[in-house]
Amino acid sequence: xxxxxxxxxxxxxWKIWMVVNPSTWLMPILFAVLLIVLTVHTxxxxxxxxxxx
Amino acid sequence: xxxxxxxxxxxxHAQFKITYTAFVGLAALAHLMVLANNPWF
Lengths: 53, 41
Description:
A: 0% strand; Antenna_beta_CS (chain B)
């Protein structure tokens, strides 16, 4: 197992798409980001530091 | 690996970097506007 070459990032970053197929996973990734964004906004707005408008 | 050729993976990654940089840029701008309008620190 240890004879597998270590990647050197960021030069080899693109190789992630040889493992994670974007035609399958791009939308799930974007929905996960949306879920995180909505959660963080909800929590932060409930802190009471901000009033909307 | 998963059906993508090296060329396709590199092409997709190039676009992914552009789009992600734009996303971070817009988010940073939005945060600066909130900071200017309603400082939280």
